[in-house]
Amino acid sequence: MGMLEGKVALVTGAGGGIGREIALAMALAGARVVVNDVGASLSGRGETSATPGEQTCRIIEQRGGEAVLSTETVAEWVAAQRIVATALDAFGRIDIVVNNAGILRDQIFHKMSPDEWLSVINVHLNGSFFVARAAAEHFRRQESGAYVHMTSTSGLIGNTGQANYAAAKLGIAALSKSIALDMGRFGVRSNCIAPFAWSRMTSAIPAETDEQKARVSKLQAMGPEKNAPLAVFLASEAARDVTGQIFASRHNELFVFNHPRPVRGVHRAEGWTPETIAGHALPALRDHLAPLDRSPDVFSWDPV
Asked: Which domains, ranges and CATH numbers included, belong to the chain?
């Protein structure tokens, strides 16, 4: 028996890349899968197509699994409810939600338009909330359920030209922690994965300078399928005591991230003025200030 035998999994953005690989892996692990994908472009603009999701369903069925397609958007509350209803109508229950759907509209901050901001926030952050919330009542009633959300080192660490994406992805990490805190008493778990992979989402990374080309070359060596085993594990009963955590999968490496905590404190009995902060507090705290890192600065070695 597979690790997800008898479970029903909903995977958003499952028409390709990481989402497809997670859907396929969960089906191989025994889950019946709702494949959700609107079939839009990377930016979310233009016409949509059911074809990507249909292809994922077809692969699952060819391998002996069960899958059903949903082409609803995650970015609207009513549509998210319909996505969850697809699982209930087709399979009678829902056990796993993988919030993977996303779009990119990269832009340097001082040139970013309100539409570029809102569109990314709506799909990534609002979409993760809507789908998770739509499943929450069913998880609560059955006193079980697992959420796996996709965050990103662009939010956890930082990146240039991605204020919308970084804000959404860091927000997803906080959302996941809140779900873990609020729903733990119902036997519901919530965790995040920061995936590394060459996929449609990363294919938009510029490759013009020698440094950029080298970075892209490293990413191309990391297939999206490398993230699927971690997602299956986190959704399974083998991870029943793991919740509120942030993991990363980078080729053959796995990481667990810490959460922000105070690293140094100073106290002054008289209280603080702007002048004493400048003269006393800042010198004491300076060595502990976080550097202005980007994700490639922290994960600077070749994937192994």
From this structure: 8-259 (3.40.50.720)
